[in-house]
Amino acid sequence: MSGTQQLSTKHLLGIKNLTAADIRLIFDTAKEFKEVINRPIKKVPSLRDITVANLFFESSTRTRVSFELAEKRLSADTVNFSASTSSVGKGETLLDTVNNILAMKVDMVVMRHPAPGAPHFLANHIDANIINAGDGTHEHPTQALLDAYSMEEYFGESLEGKKVAIFGDILHSRVALSNIFCLQKLGAEVTVCGPPTLIPQHIGALGVGVSHDVRKTLQWCDVANVLRIQLERQDIKYFPSLREYTLYYGINKALLDSLDKPVLIMHPGPINRGVEIDSDAADSSHSIILQQVENGVAVRMAVLYLLAALK
Ligand code: CP
């Protein structure tokens, strides 16, 4: 990789504290790495002397595999930690767990944790670079970066002036908050759409539009980023039934076909097919859901590479 530019931060805790220049640098670097991972030999030696610990205190498919692949493509040494098979169940604190792992000479920590702010807490107590792979309902920065990167790649131009709608369970979504910060820093307009009970009361203060009308919002937007209902984070009932949610807020092919323009369909996964989106819409030619996953590896390679330079 070429270039002498650096990120403004040694940790990726959220999009909130990244600058637009940081995001642009990550995208430019990801573009170079995307070219690398499409070659017959997909590996570069950039992180050969770096050890990365992937600490997952919550379940994950895409983020975990994507980070692991990104680290391997960069020739880093990796260790994987899963809370369910660790000593966390024996009462060890987060700080003790991480300090014990770092004592084995780990340079970078990728962490998913159910508690909002957990990676920020770690960053205040340890030396290693921390990458937030999702902290509770707070932020999921690499998801927002790969989402915005995928949108720019699809349109072949910057997101300045593009209209992006985020549909679904905004209240419990870390993807929504990181997407809002990222898209606004890149000049896009954002509207959130869902049932009133699943939209945070004061979210308009972030400068986003708020809608409860799926058809009108689809008609307004260039991109529909559809989120699932996070039942695992809901301690009360926010709507009468999944069937009713799908009826009023689900996105389906018939609805998309009835619009007078195509809308780009995105979803961070995991999809609950037939609930927030039907299969015909999720798998349509206007959907880039699998391209998002592909781009995730290149974007995470870029983040790891740029942060490792700031050790
Ligand atoms: N998009 C996302 O974070 O998926 P996982 O929970 O499978 O990592």
Plain-language structure description:
- The chain has 311 residues and is of the alpha/beta class.
- It folds into 2 domains: 15-140 and 293-308, Aspartate/ornithine carbamoyltransferase (Rossmann fold, 3-Layer(aba) Sandwich); 141-288, Rossmann fold, CATH 3.40.50.1370.
- 37% of the residues lie in helices and 14% in strands.
- It contains 11 helices and 9 strands.
- The strands form 2 sheets. The chain has a 5-stranded parallel beta sheet, with helices on both faces. A 4-stranded parallel beta sheet has the order 2-1-3-4.
- Helix 1 crosses helix 11 (289-308), helix 2 packs across helix 11 and helix 5 crosses helix 6 (174-185).
- The mean pLDDT is 95.
- Phosphoric acid mono(formamide)ester binds next to helix 2.
